[in-house]
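Quick start: read one record
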Amino acid sequence: MATFPSFSNPVPPPAPAGAADDLSFDVTEADFRQTVLERSLDVPVLLDCWAPWCGPCRNLKPVLEKLVQDYGGRFVLAKLNTDEAPQISAALQIRSIPLVVLFVGGRPVDQFMGAQPEGTVRKFLDKHLGPQVSEAEALRLEAAEAPDAETAEAILHEALQVEPRNAAVLLDLAERVIARGGLDEAERVLAAVPADQRKDRHAGLLKRIELARNRPQGDPATLTARIAANGKDFEARFALAAILAYESDFNAAFDQLLEVVLRDKAEWREKARKQLVEWFDACPDPAVVSRGRRYLGMYLN
Protein backbone atom coordinates (compact mmCIF):
# COMPACT_ATOMS: atom_id res chain seq x y z
CA MET A 1 0.00 0.00 0.00
CA ALA A 2 1.26 3.44 -0.88
CA THR A 3 2.33 5.87 1.84
CA PHE A 4 0.56 9.21 1.72
CA PRO A 5 1.55 12.49 3.36
CA SER A 6 -0.73 13.94 6.04
CA PHE A 7 -2.90 16.91 5.19
CA SER A 8 -1.89 20.06 7.01
CA ASN A 9 -4.91 20.38 9.33
CA PRO A 10 -6.58 17.72 11.49
CA VAL A 11 -9.88 16.35 10.20
CA PRO A 12 -12.78 18.14 11.93
CA PRO A 13 -16.00 16.44 13.06
CA PRO A 14 -18.23 14.95 10.32
CA ALA A 15 -20.16 17.36 8.12
CA PRO A 16 -23.86 17.85 8.74
CA ALA A 17 -26.21 15.30 7.22
CA GLY A 18 -27.08 16.08 3.62
CA ALA A 19 -23.58 17.01 2.42
CA ALA A 20 -22.65 15.19 -0.79
CA ASP A 21 -25.63 12.85 -0.66
CA ASP A 22 -25.20 11.38 -4.15
CA LEU A 23 -23.27 8.16 -4.64
CA SER A 24 -21.14 9.79 -7.36
CA PHE A 25 -20.08 13.44 -7.37
CA ASP A 26 -17.38 15.87 -8.48
CA VAL A 27 -14.94 17.21 -5.90
CA THR A 28 -12.70 20.30 -5.92
CA GLU A 29 -9.92 21.61 -3.75
CA ALA A 30 -12.42 23.90 -2.04
CA ASP A 31 -14.66 21.07 -0.81
CA PHE A 32 -12.15 18.20 -0.69
CA ARG A 33 -11.97 18.17 3.11
CA GLN A 34 -15.74 18.00 3.48
CA THR A 35 -16.63 15.66 0.60
CA VAL A 36 -13.71 13.24 0.88
CA LEU A 37 -12.00 13.36 4.27
CA GLU A 38 -15.04 14.09 6.44
CA ARG A 39 -17.37 11.93 4.34
CA SER A 40 -15.00 8.97 4.67
CA LEU A 41 -15.57 9.00 8.43
CA ASP A 42 -19.08 7.69 7.69
CA VAL A 43 -18.67 5.75 4.44
CA PRO A 44 -15.64 4.72 2.34
CA VAL A 45 -14.87 7.27 -0.38
CA LEU A 46 -13.28 6.14 -3.65
CA LEU A 47 -11.42 9.10 -5.14
CA ASP A 48 -11.00 9.01 -8.93
CA CYS A 49 -8.15 11.32 -9.94
CA TRP A 50 -8.55 12.12 -13.65
CA ALA A 51 -8.04 14.80 -16.29
CA PRO A 52 -9.97 15.72 -19.46
CA TRP A 53 -7.03 14.88 -21.78
CA CYS A 54 -6.49 11.40 -20.26
CA GLY A 55 -7.79 8.58 -22.48
CA PRO A 56 -7.47 5.78 -19.86
CA CYS A 57 -9.39 8.03 -17.43
CA ARG A 58 -12.33 8.10 -19.85
CA ASN A 59 -12.22 4.30 -20.06
CA LEU A 60 -12.17 3.86 -16.28
CA LYS A 61 -14.90 6.39 -15.46
CA PRO A 62 -17.93 4.28 -16.57
CA VAL A 63 -16.53 1.24 -14.73
CA LEU A 64 -16.35 3.18 -11.45
CA GLU A 65 -19.77 4.77 -11.97
CA LYS A 66 -21.31 1.35 -12.62
CA LEU A 67 -19.70 -0.17 -9.54
CA VAL A 68 -20.78 2.59 -7.17
CA GLN A 69 -24.37 1.88 -8.22
CA ASP A 70 -23.90 -1.90 -8.01
CA TYR A 71 -22.57 -1.65 -4.45
CA GLY A 72 -25.62 0.35 -3.42
CA GLY A 73 -24.09 2.85 -1.02
CA ARG A 74 -21.33 0.71 0.48
CA PHE A 75 -18.95 3.36 -0.83
CA VAL A 76 -19.26 6.69 -2.65
CA LEU A 77 -17.33 7.90 -5.67
CA ALA A 78 -15.60 11.31 -5.64
CA LYS A 79 -14.18 12.52 -8.99
CA LEU A 80 -11.26 14.96 -8.89
CA ASN A 81 -10.05 16.81 -11.99
CA THR A 82 -6.33 16.95 -11.22
CA ASP A 83 -5.75 19.83 -13.67
CA GLU A 84 -7.91 21.98 -11.38
CA ALA A 85 -6.52 20.64 -8.10
CA PRO A 86 -2.72 21.13 -8.00
CA GLN A 87 -2.49 21.21 -4.20
CA ILE A 88 -4.40 17.94 -3.73
CA SER A 89 -2.40 16.37 -6.57
CA ALA A 90 0.82 17.38 -4.84
CA ALA A 91 -0.41 16.12 -1.47
CA LEU A 92 -1.28 12.74 -3.00
CA GLN A 93 2.03 12.73 -4.92
CA ILE A 94 0.24 11.95 -8.17
CA ARG A 95 2.70 10.93 -10.89
CA SER A 96 0.30 9.24 -13.29
CA ILE A 97 -3.43 9.11 -13.90
CA PRO A 98 -5.91 7.65 -13.61
CA LEU A 99 -5.14 7.17 -9.94
CA VAL A 100 -7.87 5.79 -7.70
CA VAL A 101 -7.50 6.19 -3.93
CA LEU A 102 -9.75 4.67 -1.26
CA PHE A 103 -10.32 6.82 1.83
CA VAL A 104 -11.62 5.27 5.05
CA GLY A 105 -11.86 6.99 8.43
CA GLY A 106 -10.49 10.27 7.14
CA ARG A 107 -7.32 8.88 5.57
CA PRO A 108 -6.17 7.09 2.40
CA VAL A 109 -5.84 3.33 2.91
CA ASP A 110 -5.13 1.92 -0.56
CA GLN A 111 -4.86 2.86 -4.22
CA PHE A 112 -4.45 1.56 -7.75
CA MET A 113 -3.29 3.15 -11.00
CA GLY A 114 -4.42 2.77 -14.58
CA ALA A 115 -7.68 1.82 -16.30
CA GLN A 116 -8.25 -1.53 -14.61
CA PRO A 117 -11.03 -3.90 -15.77
CA GLU A 118 -14.21 -4.20 -13.72
CA GLY A 119 -13.24 -7.55 -12.19
CA THR A 120 -9.96 -6.16 -10.88
CA VAL A 121 -11.67 -3.11 -9.38
CA ARG A 122 -14.26 -5.37 -7.70
CA LYS A 123 -11.46 -7.38 -6.08
CA PHE A 124 -9.86 -4.14 -4.89
CA LEU A 125 -13.16 -3.00 -3.35
CA ASP A 126 -14.03 -6.39 -1.86
CA LYS A 127 -10.65 -6.53 -0.13
CA HIS A 128 -11.71 -3.53 1.95
CA LEU A 129 -15.51 -3.69 1.92
CA GLY A 130 -16.02 -7.45 1.96
CA PRO A 131 -17.68 -9.39 -0.89
CA GLN A 132 -20.73 -7.74 -2.37
CA VAL A 133 -24.03 -9.16 -1.14
CA SER A 134 -27.07 -9.09 -3.41
CA GLU A 135 -30.37 -7.65 -2.16
CA ALA A 136 -31.91 -11.13 -2.07
CA GLU A 137 -28.95 -12.52 -0.12
CA ALA A 138 -29.08 -9.60 2.31
CA LEU A 139 -32.76 -10.35 2.96
CA ARG A 140 -31.95 -14.04 3.40
CA LEU A 141 -29.39 -13.17 6.06
CA GLU A 142 -31.93 -10.86 7.70
CA ALA A 143 -34.47 -13.72 7.78
CA ALA A 144 -31.97 -15.93 9.58
CA GLU A 145 -31.86 -13.35 12.40
CA ALA A 146 -35.62 -12.77 12.50
CA PRO A 147 -37.23 -12.89 15.97
CA ASP A 148 -39.84 -15.47 14.96
CA ALA A 149 -40.65 -17.95 12.18
CA GLU A 150 -43.54 -15.92 10.76
CA THR A 151 -41.35 -12.85 10.29
CA ALA A 152 -38.59 -14.96 8.75
CA GLU A 153 -41.00 -16.41 6.18
CA ALA A 154 -42.27 -12.93 5.29
CA ILE A 155 -38.71 -11.71 4.71
CA LEU A 156 -37.88 -14.75 2.55
CA HIS A 157 -40.99 -14.09 0.44
CA GLU A 158 -39.77 -10.51 0.05
CA ALA A 159 -36.39 -11.84 -1.13
CA LEU A 160 -38.15 -13.98 -3.74
CA GLN A 161 -39.89 -10.89 -5.08
CA VAL A 162 -36.41 -9.56 -5.82
CA GLU A 163 -34.94 -12.83 -7.13
CA PRO A 164 -37.63 -15.51 -7.70
CA ARG A 165 -35.21 -18.32 -8.61
CA ASN A 166 -32.64 -17.79 -5.86
CA ALA A 167 -31.96 -21.39 -4.78
CA ALA A 168 -30.67 -20.54 -1.30
CA VAL A 169 -33.73 -18.43 -0.50
CA LEU A 170 -36.10 -21.11 -1.84
CA LEU A 171 -34.40 -23.80 0.24
CA ASP A 172 -34.52 -21.66 3.39
CA LEU A 173 -38.21 -20.99 2.81
CA ALA A 174 -38.97 -24.68 2.18
CA GLU A 175 -37.26 -25.60 5.45
CA ARG A 176 -39.32 -23.03 7.35
CA VAL A 177 -42.54 -24.26 5.75
CA ILE A 178 -41.74 -27.90 6.54
CA ALA A 179 -41.13 -26.97 10.16
CA ARG A 180 -44.69 -25.64 10.48
CA GLY A 181 -46.17 -28.64 8.66
CA GLY A 182 -46.93 -27.06 5.28
CA LEU A 183 -45.77 -30.09 3.31
CA ASP A 184 -47.65 -29.41 0.06
CA GLU A 185 -46.53 -25.80 0.07
CA ALA A 186 -42.94 -26.87 0.77
CA GLU A 187 -43.05 -29.22 -2.22
CA ARG A 188 -44.16 -26.36 -4.45
CA VAL A 189 -41.32 -24.19 -3.14
CA LEU A 190 -38.78 -26.96 -3.81
CA ALA A 191 -40.17 -27.45 -7.31
CA ALA A 192 -39.20 -23.83 -8.05
CA VAL A 193 -35.52 -24.48 -7.33
CA PRO A 194 -33.64 -24.46 -10.66
CA ALA A 195 -32.85 -28.03 -11.77
CA ASP A 196 -29.10 -27.41 -11.98
CA GLN A 197 -29.04 -26.26 -8.34
CA ARG A 198 -30.93 -29.17 -6.77
CA LYS A 199 -28.12 -30.60 -4.71
CA ASP A 200 -27.88 -32.45 -1.39
CA ARG A 201 -29.93 -29.97 0.61
CA HIS A 202 -32.79 -30.11 -1.90
CA ALA A 203 -32.82 -33.91 -1.74
CA GLY A 204 -32.67 -33.83 2.05
CA LEU A 205 -35.70 -31.54 2.30
CA LEU A 206 -37.67 -33.82 -0.01
CA LYS A 207 -36.73 -36.72 2.27
CA ARG A 208 -37.97 -34.75 5.30
CA ILE A 209 -41.30 -34.22 3.54
CA GLU A 210 -41.49 -37.93 2.80
CA LEU A 211 -40.72 -38.78 6.43
CA ALA A 212 -43.30 -36.31 7.70
CA ARG A 213 -46.01 -37.75 5.46
CA ASN A 214 -45.55 -41.39 6.39
CA ARG A 215 -45.84 -42.07 10.10
CA PRO A 216 -44.27 -45.46 10.82
CA GLN A 217 -46.24 -48.17 12.53
CA GLY A 218 -45.53 -49.14 16.12
CA ASP A 219 -45.82 -47.94 19.68
CA PRO A 220 -42.66 -46.23 20.98
CA ALA A 221 -43.16 -47.50 24.54
CA THR A 222 -43.58 -51.08 23.38
CA LEU A 223 -40.57 -50.86 21.09
CA THR A 224 -38.45 -49.34 23.87
CA ALA A 225 -39.43 -52.20 26.18
CA ARG A 226 -38.47 -54.75 23.55
CA ILE A 227 -35.05 -53.14 23.13
CA ALA A 228 -34.51 -53.03 26.90
CA ALA A 229 -35.26 -56.75 27.07
CA ASN A 230 -33.03 -57.61 24.10
CA GLY A 231 -30.42 -55.14 22.86
CA LYS A 232 -30.12 -57.12 19.64
CA ASP A 233 -33.78 -56.76 18.71
CA PHE A 234 -32.76 -54.91 15.56
CA GLU A 235 -36.25 -54.96 14.11
CA ALA A 236 -37.49 -52.98 17.14
CA ARG A 237 -34.55 -50.57 16.90
CA PHE A 238 -35.31 -49.87 13.23
CA ALA A 239 -39.00 -49.34 13.95
CA LEU A 240 -38.25 -46.97 16.85
CA ALA A 241 -35.64 -45.10 14.80
CA ALA A 242 -38.22 -44.56 12.04
CA ILE A 243 -40.71 -43.08 14.51
CA LEU A 244 -38.04 -40.82 16.00
CA ALA A 245 -36.99 -39.61 12.54
CA TYR A 246 -40.64 -38.94 11.69
CA GLU A 247 -40.80 -36.79 14.83
CA SER A 248 -37.58 -35.02 13.74
CA ASP A 249 -35.64 -36.38 16.73
CA PHE A 250 -32.75 -37.34 14.48
CA ASN A 251 -30.22 -37.53 17.28
CA ALA A 252 -32.17 -40.32 19.02
CA ALA A 253 -32.96 -41.99 15.69
CA PHE A 254 -29.27 -42.07 14.79
CA ASP A 255 -28.43 -43.56 18.19
CA GLN A 256 -30.74 -46.51 17.58
CA LEU A 257 -29.19 -47.30 14.21
CA LEU A 258 -25.65 -46.74 15.48
CA GLU A 259 -26.34 -49.40 18.09
CA VAL A 260 -27.26 -51.78 15.27
CA VAL A 261 -24.00 -50.97 13.47
CA LEU A 262 -22.08 -51.56 16.70
CA ARG A 263 -23.80 -54.84 17.64
CA ASP A 264 -24.14 -56.55 14.25
CA LYS A 265 -21.46 -57.55 11.74
CA ALA A 266 -23.63 -58.66 8.83
CA GLU A 267 -26.91 -57.82 7.09
CA TRP A 268 -28.45 -55.59 9.78
CA ARG A 269 -25.25 -53.53 10.03
CA GLU A 270 -25.26 -52.73 6.30
CA LYS A 271 -28.97 -51.95 6.37
CA ALA A 272 -28.43 -49.54 9.28
CA ARG A 273 -25.46 -47.92 7.55
CA LYS A 274 -27.51 -47.22 4.41
CA GLN A 275 -30.40 -45.82 6.41
CA LEU A 276 -28.09 -43.54 8.38
CA VAL A 277 -26.50 -42.17 5.21
CA GLU A 278 -29.96 -41.45 3.80
CA TRP A 279 -31.13 -39.70 6.97
CA PHE A 280 -27.94 -37.66 7.28
CA ASP A 281 -29.12 -35.74 4.22
CA ALA A 282 -32.57 -35.20 5.75
CA CYS A 283 -31.41 -33.98 9.16
CA PRO A 284 -31.49 -30.16 9.42
CA ASP A 285 -28.96 -29.95 12.29
CA PRO A 286 -25.32 -30.03 11.08
CA ALA A 287 -24.02 -30.78 14.58
CA VAL A 288 -26.24 -33.85 14.91
CA VAL A 289 -25.19 -35.05 11.45
CA SER A 290 -21.52 -34.50 12.28
CA ARG A 291 -21.86 -36.54 15.47
CA GLY A 292 -23.68 -39.34 13.62
CA ARG A 293 -21.09 -39.50 10.87
CA ARG A 294 -18.26 -39.53 13.40
CA TYR A 295 -19.68 -42.44 15.36
CA LEU A 296 -20.60 -44.33 12.20
CA GLY A 297 -17.00 -44.05 11.03
CA MET A 298 -15.72 -45.23 14.41
CA TYR A 299 -18.09 -48.22 14.55
CA LEU A 300 -17.34 -49.33 11.01
CA ASN A 301 -13.57 -49.39 11.61
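Strands lie at 24-27, 45-50, 76-81, 99-104, 107-113.
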